[in-house]
Amino acid sequence: MKVTILGNNSALPAFGRHPTAQAVSVYGDIILIDCGEGTQIQMQRYGLRWRNVHHIFISHLHGDHYFGLPGLINSMSLLGRTAPLHLYAPAPLQPILESILTVADTVLCYPFYFHPLPEEGTALLVDDPSFSVTSFLVEHRIQCHGFLVERKTRGRKLLPDKCREYEIPAAYYEILKQGADYERRDGFLVKNEWVTEDGPAHKKYAYCADTLFTESFLPAIMNADTIYHECTYLEKDADKAAARFHSTASQAAKVAKMANAKQLLLGHFSSKYKDLELFREEACSIFPNAVVSTEGIAYEI
Amino acid sequence: MKVTILGNNSALPAFGRHPTAQAVSVYGDIILIDCGEGTQIQMQRYGLRWRNVHHIFISHLHGDHYFGLPGLINSMSLLGRTAPLHLYAPAPLQPILESILTVADTVLCYPFYFHPLPEEGTALLVDDPSFSVTSFLVEHRIQCHGFLVERKTRGRKLLPDKCREYEIPAAYYEILKQGADYERRDGFLVKNEWVTEDGPAHKKYAYCADTLFTESFLPAIMNADTIYHECTYLEKDADKAAARFHSTASQAAKVAKMANAKQLLLGHFSSKYKDLELFREEACSIFPNAVVSTEGIAYEI
Asked: Where are the beta strands (DSSP E) in chain B?
């Protein structure tokens, strides 16, 4: 499970940094979180295929988090996509997208489902056999959501050579994945650990979109393996952060520490900062495993 | 007078080529024509300052011609712009832009004027002391406009050293620019050509947006110095071009020839073509001064 950063800047593009978008890869599926202007080109640049995207989540309706969406949706149609696409976003986006398609006299050539995000509380949005996505509220100037993406375990991983060596019929493979031993006709017991190994572990990735420093959504992100938390400002500009409903690097680190996370990715940097080293130093003094996210890097979760 | 190509591709971004946008520079002013996704970043990349833009023209409401507009408008506001901005676009764009601002709880901090383009005929949209812009209808799948940008002459150009040499008071400079001679008190006649030289000539740039091959708008672009004409396809795909209301390189060249243009810029290439040399060859066989437009290049008009 990886997250590739497609944009790590706040609203004003600067220093080659793009507005927010990121791609979470889970078992070959790409879950797109936010879709700032230029996302379709950033995906091309970093070799992420649009056709592997089936779910898009938009945290809130400030443009730097969704102005790349109409272009991506359109391009998917121009390429003749047939697979369904599910979009989860604040409700007022739906009539805007419909108007954009109407004035262009465009009908998408694939099934497109708009799922409005609930205005209150947490919600299990997707519960797929491979992963789940839950939304939670963060505290911004307008309604804004964070997302928890959980990769599910697929059970134990078969060792095909070993299975053949012990003459186990393929029909039993699913049972082996669930951890069972296998008893042969001759009474010989094949222990599960001889023919399987640990499969992919359950993983949690928490995306904490534009937000004030707050403990209000801690319950939703507790024990996440990786947290992405916005830090538009350094602590010396904490007053600006508060006034604009944003956070500082120190505050992001405090959240990661309180949530007992393993790793913190820092992002959504103000265009007033060219050098981001101070963000790393500030966060690491509170939460040592803090990383300044860089566009194009795929971070292991 | 120059035009800088910010995007020369058709709808699907490909091979590093972006959707349509171009910046026409006239006496320090930037006139933006179309504003595909990523235009604000392309402007940064090629050193074109947003604050020099006072007029934006959108040819039609297919997304590859305007999806960069909300981001640019927004960014100008974030930077604290105070100068007015005039947008000329098909009328249905106005409520879409208003909705985008409303859902973000954003009020632009500068005066923003939306001018709907007329649904029929040609129209003089801007008549500034330095330049004028006229719209004309082209023939596309939806209502679509071309634009003729004309740089006005500013009269003759003063030679300050010569003016001082002949002791001409500054109060007479405006009259000299209009071509008049100057008679000194001692009766000596200073000939205009001794103290001035030719000023910038009247120039015409015609942007022929997405269109079928047609002679219908020839009267609007006759004798243009430079024509930009779309050529989404090569002539061997003329059937595709016709079916999709686009043109071929040969057809673009025919238009330039019939219009008695001096130069033809080719653009709006389909993403099916990686190599664009065949576009040049095809067009040059009909109209020799045809150029494959390249992003980032400022073409002298």
From this structure: 2-7, 21-26, 29-35, 53-57, 85-89, 112-116, 123-127, 131-137, 145-151, 157-158, 182-183, 189-190, 196-197, 203-208, 226-230, 263-267, 290-292, 298-300
